[in-house]
Amino acid sequence: MSEAVTKNDGINRAKLYQLVLFPLNNGATNVYYVLVLAYIATFGSNVLGLGVLFASVMVTGMRVFDAFTDPVIGALMDRTNGKFGKFRPFMVIGNVIMALSIITMYIITPKIPETMMALRYVAFVGLYAIWVIGYTFQTSCTRAGQTVLTSDPGQRPLFTIFNTVGSLAGMGVMQFLAPIIRANVADYSSADFYKVLTPVGIIVSIVLTILAIIGIWEKDQPKYFGIGGSKQEKVKISEYVEIIKNNSPMKRLMIAGAGCKLALSIATNTTVLCMLYGSMMGNYDGLYLPMMIVGYVFSVPFFVLTVRTSQKKGQRASLLRYVSLALVCYVGVLALLLAWKQGVPGVNLSLISNGKLSINIYTVLFLVFFGVGYGAYYSTADMPIPMVADCSDYETYRSGKYIPGIMGTLFSLVDKLVSSLSATVVGIAVSLIGIKSLPTADTPYSSGMNVVVIILFCVVPMVAWIATIIAMKGYILTGEKMKEIQEVNQRRKEAIAAGMSLQQAMEEL
């Protein structure tokens, strides 16, 4: 491996430990993906007593705020080049902001008396807004930092698998611990649940952030910043509109990323899973963790397959292939949920009954369709993240501008929009069938729940995958095209280092 990363052909390559550690930054932010986005609406509705629609819709409404903050933070990142580099300061500051805001949100705000409900509303909105800023600071570094980590088209697909491992180190740990805390401490609707989960999540996120900083430490310096290095031209916020307008691959990737993220966000939403495994199937504790483990087990071979496909045919081909497979498999999941009947053993999920293994044909078919489908789409859910680096390199190739910050925050905006949109969609869907508060694991089945689950667990993700496939059909950054772009960028970089101006290098090379 050491020879592969040090051969002198002008290509910037990462060392193995850097490829492994830096993606843990995504794991650090994904801790909050679970801690906040999976539970914020339930916390607001059931713990603080806020209106169920308010708690859900506010999370999406805050994207208007993001529309102003994201470009500003992206501009700051692109202009930053201090003693501690371009990306490390944003990782540290972002993590601190998130930790402080969520400690205050989950542990202190429940102490506000019910007689001061207006203050609860204000605190809820204000603290969430502060958290959003911190989340943007850190999560945009995952996208932007890849541009300095490696420019090797053969290494970038590896970022996907290590990014997924990093995501599991954050999101997976939280998803695993949450139901255990619920079963042994308190339910999701209790303030005690959040008092325990919050410090655990923050500690996990801090550890992952420190490891990620170690991973990018050596690369976070001017010689890896685009083709101009420390001579890089400053980009004004007003120029970003032109950049977005002319960077077609980035626009298509934003649509694809939104599709993949929306599918994951809604299908894994805590409320949706409570209705599916608890209210419909009647055994949340016996199904949630086993089904989550099944999904992760099926994901493992797909992680390997997506990397191999990406290295041979490019990341576009890999994304198209496995999203299409997920779409086909979820047709089977949809058919099974349509066949479900309340209280009928043969058409219900059954894994353990009276302490013994109890599996029927319905469960076997569900495990196969869900397992393969989940494995395929989970392995592609984060694939657009390393593709952001390709779009950033394309922008350098197209205009000569090195703007990983704005590219990262653009994608971060889409990421947060669809993630928070999931809470709103779920909240509206639940309210339409007359439920006053978001269902938990112990909520009994009520009429219409099966329709809500079918739409949210299957139909919405399938529509999102169709949008992803359509967007990727016109994506021009194939494996061969990226090799060409890297070669041209490298020649221009060498020419500029030798004294040629950026404008001359763009015109002649």
UniProtKB/TrEMBL annotation:
Molecular function (GO) terms for this protein are:
symporter activity
Annotated GO CC locations: plasma membrane
Q: What is this protein called?
A: Na+/melibiose symporter
Keywords from the named record: Membrane, Transmembrane, Transmembrane helix
Judging by the UniProt lineage, the source's domain of life is Bacteria
Extract the SUPFAM superfamilies matched here: MFS general substrate transporter
Keyword Transferase listed? The answer is no
Under the heading InterPro entries, the entry gives: MFS_2, MFS_trans_sf
Family matches, as Pfam families: MFS_2
According to the record, the segments passing through the membrane are 31-55, 87-107, 119-137, 158-181, 193-217, 253-280, 286-307, 319-339, 359-377, 417-435, 447-472
What biological-process terms (Gene Ontology) are attached?
carbohydrate transport
